[in-house]
Amino acid sequence: MPILSSIATQAGRLWRKSPANSGLAGTPPKRRPGPADGSGALRATASGAIEWLNDTDFRLGGTLFHATVDPAVYHARVSDARGFLVVKTRGMIEDLLSHDQHLPIGTILDIGIWQGGSVALLDCAYRPRKLVGLEYSTRDLPHLDSYIASNGRQDAVRVHKGINQADVAAVTRVLDTEFGGQTIDLVIDDASHFFDETMASFNVVFPRVTPGGLFVIEDWQWSTTDVHYKLDYFQGKPGLANLIVMCMLVCGARPDIVSHVTVSPTQAIVVCGPAALPKAGFSIADLARSRGEVFTAVL
Ligand SMILES: C[S@@+](CC[C@H](N)C(=O)[O-])C[C@H]1O[C@@H](n2cnc3c(N)ncnc32)[C@H](O)[C@@H]1O
Q: Is the pLDDT assigned to residue 194 strictly greater than 60?
């Protein structure tokens, strides 16, 4: 099998957060409770407040979504008139809708889009002037296509398929084409969850993040939980947690580059500092040092 289709097959069989380790079982702290909690003010998004119909289905504006982290469901179901499929827990979704507490969100990069649900969700929540989805698979996403067309979002919401996040030249080309000189306020990486591939795209994308902007790495924790690290998908792979440690080390030594790192059980948020970084040649691994020595991926 050629290497590209082998990667696509791997990605298609993607492991995922099990409900036992997900926000459904142990919901991460929510920064802005929604009405379903019965505990707080409505969380306003560009499309109004999220309306949970039950534990998995919700509406944002006029758009329906189905949230699941159950592999049996997300491999079988597609995004269609029943709703966009979003491979996230309710806690992760509510976190996603609260990122604009940190800064206004006008530009977004979503890496790894599966059935296009995360793209539609981010668009409904923020109505950004530019939202770019990057995806390795070339599968058709008709429900996303019709969402974009019927909402007149063709210029703002752009999806690039067949792009491996580890392909530095391809990712650079997409960023140059779509964002030009604009910085990116919010990045969500929910793609391979492999350390090397995730670091490769991090090195390309992070220098383009807005000072104070957020780079969210989902499912950094897979090497910490039996249910995940024992999966075939991760055999022989260094933990993604290594990248989070690198970001922490850079935060300590160079807060002008990484100003904060916030970790929850299913995501790490790396906040970009004010330093101007070169668009090419950035390497988090070169900067991440302890006692002067580069950090070796040990996790
Ligand atoms: C967990 S799914 C994304 C779910 C989506 N963000 C959501 O919330 O509904 C991961 C996606 O990443 C894609 N992917 C896996 N490896 C990739 C790689 N190396 N480069 C780009 N995309 C990749 C897979 O094809 C899959 O569609």
A: yes
